[in-house]
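Bug #77: duplicate submission created two jobs. Keeping one. Sequence:
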Amino acid sequence: MQGELPDGIGNLNLERFVIRENSFTGLIPTKIFNSSTLKSLVLSNNDFFGYLPLTMGLWLPNLKSLVLDNNKLKGIIPSSISIASKLTILSMNSDSLTGVIPDLAFGCKVKGDIPSGIGNLSSLERLSLDSN
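Kept job's structure:
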């Protein structure tokens, strides 16, 4: 599949949204990060570009899995991702995200130390730090 995702995709009451290994391009619609029902968001191995919204973690109370590997994302990993307290899998490998790692966000080409609070993340099951 290819093309851009329509903004309205975020209006769906999905629990899982998985579109890995396609040729989707463009910005990831901001509304997709506003879905309180979403438990798994996997957009890896596409050609999405741009920045992640600074508020991306504010409205994802049930998110358990966020996988954005191998896209063309850039900018910082928003610290708001640490609000998604049920997150167990976070993977953003091989993107061009930079900056200090928020307490819960790992992967990407980031700089700085792994936060000391890593030991307090009792729900985290997978930590991926590939290609840094």
